Amino acid sequence: MALDDGDRKIWKSGRGKGRGTPKGRQLDEAAWAEVRALLGDRPRRRDLLIEFLHLIQDAYGHLSAAHLRALAEEMKLAMAEVYEVATFYAHFDVVREDDTPPPALTIRVCDSLSCELAGAEALRAALEDGTDPAQVRVVRAPCMGRCDTAPVCEVGHAHVDHATPEAVDAVIASGHLHPHIPDYETYDAYVAGGGYAALADLRANGNWEEVQETILDAGVRGLGGAGFPSGKKWGFVRAEEGPRYLAVNGDEGEPGTFKDRYYLERIPHLFLEGTLIAAWAVEADRVYLYMRDEYPAVLEILRREIAALETAGIVEPGYIELRRGAGAYICGEESAMIESLEGKRGIPRHRPPYVAQVGVFGRPTLVHNVETLHWVARVCREGPGILKDVEKNGRKGLRSYSVSGRVNAPGVYLLPAGSTIRDVIAAAGGMPEGHTLKAFQPGGPSSGLLPASLDHIALDFDVLQDHGSFIGSAAVVVLSDRDSARDAALNMLRFFEDESCGQCTPCRVGCEKAVKLMQSDRWDRDLLEELSQMMVDASICGLGQAAPNPIRLVMKHFPDEV
Predict the structure, then answer these.
(1) Between the N and C ends of the chain, which has fewer C-beta atoms within 10 Å?
(2) For 74-187, where are the E strands, in sequence order?
């Protein structure tokens, strides 16, 4: 298509009279001015697309077609490219010209397993009945990482713990719809206690290979789920030619998991020092912190404390980039997170190559979980004995268990890695009166459900695999004899169905088909097993490969329910 230079300035495509405008959505000058005002003097880099979408969503409550077209113009991107990214993430509300924008206020009600056990379904129904849909939108939402205070909902950006319709009404009436920032250890307090001394010593005199051996000796492993020995990653990345990057996976989206939020809302600088130690070890040119959008308080804390590090001269301005997720569980997978960091849809990459070789912007990238870096700092400050000297049931180390469900005191508990489910329940105050242990989820929905008869095994890496499960992120949800294992498995598969990125057919269609089959009065066990095996064998990433675990374990351990 070409622009005719004649008086009429018409767009022509072959024969005919042509058009007065190019094809597609036309640029609205007013919307363009609004987008430019929001972006200010920020660089118009492609990798900042999701950050810019957040700016528009926050300012206007939705993403209009006019604003998306204007953003595409401002960033010199195709409209289709901007649209596909905006529609991929759950926290963006894309509104076309003929659509009605959402109400000014949105209430998100968590429907994860812990919240469902605590009455989230009844809460959602009550909120829908008690609000004007023209003024307030009530929607289901996946796990918000607050399972210890279930049921939970988010009113605007304010979380309501132990939510009731009355508590929600009170928050709305108050008008305080922003996150509550808890008390936490600031930069000054952390430094007063010896913080950043280990980092300073390593920068001045340290040998990265010696530190790597210390981390390996301590037994620090990836604590986002995979459990890969952390020190080994350093060597892989360091062996690659620079520039190199460090990407922190703070997208703690596995339902039942809230340990990273727990630490970041209390002692963020222990994590930040561990981050900078790891960055020093691999000579990272830049650090990217990818944090889930469901944690607005954590995002604000990190903004403040990164600024404090810059002011103190610990890092150069801009060395640490904080990136905000947009509601996509799949971005917990490391390559999908990297795609999101680059401003794209969170679609897992095919491997090899691995991210240690080809990561952010195609460069070698070290990827760590938040809690992993917490332990890197502690080991460097206190020595490897803080982990390796702790032993129970033949297992060494400590684990941060996120515990919720049928326990009296849900929360994060730091226990020996050899702890059993009975130990975990005891630490969480025991089970409520009248409840008896029936089943437990040891590591999020991906780990499935195990029966009470396995209450003697250690909840640790390399142990649960023999039982068709794994510890993952140590997201423990406890079920009692009053709960249905079948219903719990259906809750988990619905989550996977919603969160599948859609890239591969085995996961996308398999999760949907599994949910339909599981809603039958009696399960077709042969067909579900065939479907499960297909998903395990053919799915691209861990989501589809692990999604059948709840199905298989319920069929194995609770056959009378299906």
Answers:
(1) N
(2) 94-95, 105-110, 136-141, 153-155, 158-160
pLDDT in tens, 373-426: 999 999 999 999 999 999 999 999 999 999 999 999 999 999 999 999 999 999
The two beta strands, 320-324 and 284-291, are parallel
> In this structure, what token pair is assigned to residue 497?
């169905």
Residue 432: exposed, middle, or buried by beta-carbon count in 10 A (0-12, 13-18, 19+)?
A: exposed
Mean pLDDT estimate for the chain: 95
Helices (H) and strands (E) in the chain, counts: 23, 19
Among 466, 470, 424, CA closest to 446: 470
Provide the 10 A C-beta neighbour count for residue 398. Answer: 17
Segment 114-140 mean pLDDT: 95
**What residue has token string 């307030």?**
136
- Smallest CA-to-CA distance from 368 within 198, 232, 184 is with 232
The residues facing 324 across adjacent strands are: 291
Compute the radius of gyration of the chain from its Cα atoms.
Answer: 25
State the SS3 of 219-240: CCECCCCCCCEHHHHHHHHHCC
SS percent in the chain: helix, strand, coil, step 5: 45, 15, 40
- Say if residue 537's pLDDT is above 90: yes
CA geometry: angle 298, 304, 306, nearest 5 deg: 95
Alpha-carbon distance 40 to 60, whole Å? 16
- Three-class DSSP category at 328: coil
Contact in structure between 167 and 160 (CB atoms under 8 Å): yes
pLDDT per position as a tens digit, 461-516: 889 999 999 998 999 999 999 999 999 999 999 999 999 999 999 999 999 999 99
Closest C-alpha to 322, from 356, 358, 370, 361:
370
Cβ contacts of 194 within 8 Å, gap of 6 or more:
381
Instruction: Work out whether strand 391-392 and strand 395-396 pair parallel, antiparallel, or are unpaired.
Output: antiparallel
CA distance 544 to 537: 9
> Whose CA is closest to 421, among 449, 446, 458?
458
For tokens 């993403």, name the residue.
63
Beta carbons within 8 Å of 441's beta carbon, 6+ residues apart? 113, 256, 405, 447, 448, 449, 450, 475, 476, 477, 479, 488
